[in-house]
Amino acid sequence: PIKPSLVARHHRHRLLHIFLSSPPRLLIDTSRISNNLRRALKLNNSIMADDKKKKDDEVKKEESEGKKDADETTAASSKKKDDEPKKPDVPPVIAAGLRLERILTVSSPSGGSAPKAAAAGSPHSSDSATHNAAALTANVEAVLHSNPGKIVRRWLGTSSGTSSRATLADLSKGAEALLSHDGPCATGRELVMLLAPPTEGGGEAMDVDAKAGGEEKKDDDEKPKFLSTAAREYEAWLISLAVRLLWRDGRHGDAHSLAGKGVSILSAHMDDAARVTARAGAAGSLGKAGGASGLYPLLSRMHRYQSLAAEGLAGEQGESARAAMRADTAAAHRMACLRRDVDTQATLLNLMLRDLLNANQVEQAQKLLSNSTFPDSASNNQLCRYLYNSGRIQALRLEYTSAFSNLSQCLRKAPTNTGLGFRIAVQRLLVVVQLLMGEIPERNVFFTEGMVAELSPYLKITQAVRRGDLPFFKTTVAQCASRLREDGTYTLISRLAHSVVKAGLRRLNVSYSRISLDDVAHRLGLSCATSAEFVVAKAVRDGVIDATIDHAGGYVRSHDLVDVYATTEPAEAFHRRIAYCLTTHNDAVRGMRYPPDAYKRQLEASRGLKGKKDDDKTDEEKAQEFEEEMDEDY
């Protein structure tokens, strides 16, 4: 159809043409023509509206048909999905083991050939010893040139959520599903499965069902697929999680026993791997322990759980367990140094320092600290523990400056998203060390998020030290004595009485130009004027205050404050600095007077090997060579 605008324009032009070219008698018909034009335009608009409505109806019909087809397709696909059998969800503990197997297999240089070689022998064969040796050799060859320790460390970090939510029943299912009952990890498998709580409904029916299911599954594809490359690491991980669960439940005896068995199993795995690697003639068998470096983070974790379980034991059993562990820990530390096991070295060193501090053997701890070396590549958590232990030892030995440096570094390196209890312990000790150094901590330290309640006694003690109020200090310490003993800071805080007295003397010295010893004793809470006299005399000798004691009059006279810039002390300090710079310059000039390689010529002359070429040269040639050497050097 023609657009209405075009029709109107056509008729307007035609009408104008008729009007201009027609004689006057025809102009009377213009009204009739305009009426016809209006009717034509109205008819054209109605035709266009009908065509548009038809097109809209066709489009709606097509859309409804397409939507109906799509609904039918979606319903059919959903019905098909419902008809398909749903895959069972893999438990998190089993999924973590499969992920570790996949990561270690991909990281091996053979690209997965090790698991195939390990699976070459049937796990149900009669000669289990031959199969175990073949599997161990394949695993060693697969991971010898990779870095399984780093891989396992990262895997432990990603599996922390699974570890926190796992139960003994989950660990038992994981051991049954992924560890072979006749493989090298059979011992650990049995230990973990024995810890599972008994299920309700009777176990005989389950055994019958298991036997029936075993008779039905005869195909090779339906046989259980056990871990090969990551079997040892997964076994150690399950045992460590079981030890942690037992320790958290308060079963410290069972946890300590299981941790000891786990350490023995891991040591046996490392020895077997080292023997296989030595027999194969691989390089670096001692340093890498035969490709068993993936067990290093797990071995260190096992030692730590064993120590925590031993600390939880009470009475004679705990004392005997801790005494037996000291020799075992020292031997394990020596073996870790030989294996270059950084994780176990750092962990065992921190455990030995912690044990000595708990036993109040500060001198022994200091000897161990001075005669041992903390590995540089240890984890950040172990470094924080080492800095805390060393700072605590140095604070007990009156080395407050070194203790403050180590504790400050420890607090900066400690993680801020976790470990609140550790940060509270570090902050408590740091506050006490600052007070012993004569410094007052910042007020916002005591109002850190999560530390307000724990640091409230130390805030009161800090206020007493700042004001120099000895009675208030003694009252606060007496009220919080049990809390301070639990924190292990009571011995250090008992040394703060002298700091409180010094702070009180400073305030009295600034406030009064003359004060009697009786008033000093009353203000500081001392017993008598004689005690106050001794305290003031020691403070004057140490340079805490600038005053004079009048023994006859029984009072203390404070000296007027002297402006240091009105004395010659700044000039003397400036003179010392200038003299040091001039001495350094003169030494440098004196050192440059000797020509290069002069010591070599002296050495040759002392041996009777004086250069013959130099004898033939003239003085001018020697001078020219010397100038050329100087030009090359500068």
Number of strands: 3
Largest sheet: 3 strands, antiparallel
Strand percentage:
under 5%
Roughly what is the average pLDDT, rounded to an integer? 75
Poorly predicted residue ranges: 112-126, 140-145, 201-221, 282-290
Largest sheet strand order: 1-3-2
Terminal CA distance reads 97 Å
How many DSSP H or I helices? 31
Q: Which of globular, elongated, flat, extended, rod-shaped describes the shape?
A: extended
Helix content: over 70%
Structural class: mainly alpha
Q: What's the Cα radius of gyration?
A: 45 Å
Provide an overview of this structure.
With 634 residues, the protein is mainly alpha-helical. Helices cover 71% and strands 2% of the residues. It is built from 31 helices and three strands. It has a three-stranded antiparallel beta sheet with strand order 1-3-2.
Q: What key phrases describe this protein's structure?
A:
extended; mainly alpha; about 625 residues; 3-stranded antiparallel β-sheet
